[in-house]
């Protein structure tokens, strides 16, 4: 009975499972030796005590409860023993799994190490092969250099021998020429010594004949003039006829000279152009003879919009559109033209719009520059009148555009100007005092505050041209990229290719980068793109080249701004324009 042993002092011991993790590492203990007699001894006292305890338990009133309790304890111990056996098996399985994982990691490490060793072996073999190839190249290079050195030495020796031969020939030839010259000189000196007397006689004879000839010529001329004067003075009719003939001859010469001058002025006013006019679209017979192809192109030019290819802010475009419509209707109705002042920083489209306005209105245009007036000096008044006389003779009407007008239309009260320039300014004011239906005056200036008050009084409308904003710069970028890059690239005769990229996005990006730049600077940037494509080896214009030229233009613009003085910045209003845009 197991419960009896449980209540007694000598119950069988349960295996210790606390250190079950180390079970796999422990070896089984050897069985007890058969020679030991103590293992087979039987303890009878224990049975006696158990029997005694059983009797006492049977006599007790709680014998049944004790038996149930002993059974319950035995069942609990069996369950606990089974649980510990299961835990032992689980831990054994975990040990096996861990051992497999360790084995797998070891195999993985072994495989990685073998792969690494294989790679190192391959790299080493590759390095050896490269080194062998480099050694071969080095040996080949050294052999080639040695052969080249030998060839150069051979050529140098041949050149030295050839040079020495040529020098020897020249030296021998110079010695021979010197000997020949010396022999010729000796022979000439000997001949001159022998013929000295004969030569002196010939010179004396020639001098005597020349002197006699001159004396006879003087005597003959004197006798002729003397006889003629004597006959003229003795006969008064001949004297009067000679005087009348000379008078008529002088009158004819002076009359022809005056007529020629008048004719030249008429021809110049009708057919030629004044010297102050730099450029004109007016047809001229003399200019057509000088430049027939250019004249033919101008005659074929069709009427176009005044704002075509002119990129300006919307408000300014609207105002200039009204000016163009008013000018066109004025010409159709033969009304009086209005004088306009266009002012603002350089390169903002003033001259371009003036040309477009004249072509749109069907008028001729003529461009003057104020810097050409001052060098004329006292002839400035005459040339100024020639310009206005020439302008009033235009059959189509003339748009007279004066660029840099502030160069000679300065204030007479405060500016220090010469008398000749003052007289020229007075002539200009005289010819523009009244409205005209023959010509339209358009002035352009960067500093209009320097104008004389009388000049301002003759202006009917003032238009300010500012620097282009972001949207205008983007439109200008697209315009000049198409004009100088895309259009030439589409022609088969032009060697220009373009890398594939988003042109519109790039133009938008460059428009943000070029704040403060004028339209003229952006146009020059377009020419720079085209030049970059032409100068490349394969004629390919890449995106990096376009951005590089744009960055160079920005640096140049900043350098120009640094060079300007504070007065120039204030006069040209760059500071205000840059702060706005």
UniProtKB/TrEMBL annotation:
<keyword id="KW-0547">Nucleotide-binding</keyword>
<feature type="region of interest" description="Disordered">
    <location>
        <begin position="1"/>
        <end position="43"/>
    </location>
</feature>
<feature type="compositionally biased region" description="Basic and acidic residues">
    <location>
        <begin position="143"/>
        <end position="162"/>
    </location>
</feature>
<dbReference type="GO" id="GO:0007005">
    <property type="term" value="P:mitochondrion organization"/>
</dbReference>
<keyword id="KW-0067">ATP-binding</keyword>
<dbReference type="GO" id="GO:0005743">
    <property type="term" value="C:mitochondrial inner membrane"/>
</dbReference>
<feature type="domain" description="AAA+ ATPase">
    <location>
        <begin position="336"/>
        <end position="469"/>
    </location>
</feature>
<dbReference type="GO" id="GO:0042645">
    <property type="term" value="C:mitochondrial nucleoid"/>
</dbReference>
<protein>
    <recommendedName>
        <fullName>AAA+ ATPase domain-containing protein</fullName>
    </recommendedName>
</protein>
<feature type="region of interest" description="Disordered">
    <location>
        <begin position="561"/>
        <end position="581"/>
    </location>
</feature>
<dbReference type="Pfam" id="PF12037">
    <property type="entry name" value="ATAD3_N"/>
</dbReference>
<dbReference type="Pfam" id="PF00004">
    <property type="entry name" value="AAA"/>
</dbReference>
<dbReference type="GO" id="GO:0008270">
    <property type="term" value="F:zinc ion binding"/>
</dbReference>
<dbReference type="InterPro" id="IPR021911">
    <property type="entry name" value="ATAD3_N"/>
</dbReference>
<dbReference type="InterPro" id="IPR027417">
    <property type="entry name" value="P-loop_NTPase"/>
</dbReference>
<dbReference type="GO" id="GO:0016887">
    <property type="term" value="F:ATP hydrolysis activity"/>
</dbReference>
<feature type="region of interest" description="Disordered">
    <location>
        <begin position="113"/>
        <end position="162"/>
    </location>
</feature>
<feature type="compositionally biased region" description="Basic and acidic residues">
    <location>
        <begin position="561"/>
        <end position="574"/>
    </location>
</feature>
<keyword id="KW-0175">Coiled coil</keyword>
<keyword id="KW-0472">Membrane</keyword>
<keyword id="KW-0496">Mitochondrion</keyword>
<dbReference type="GO" id="GO:0005524">
    <property type="term" value="F:ATP binding"/>
</dbReference>
<keyword id="KW-0999">Mitochondrion inner membrane</keyword>
<dbReference type="InterPro" id="IPR003959">
    <property type="entry name" value="ATPase_AAA_core"/>
</dbReference>
<feature type="compositionally biased region" description="Polar residues">
    <location>
        <begin position="11"/>
        <end position="22"/>
    </location>
</feature>
<keyword id="KW-1135">Mitochondrion nucleoid</keyword>
<dbReference type="InterPro" id="IPR003593">
    <property type="entry name" value="AAA+_ATPase"/>
</dbReference>
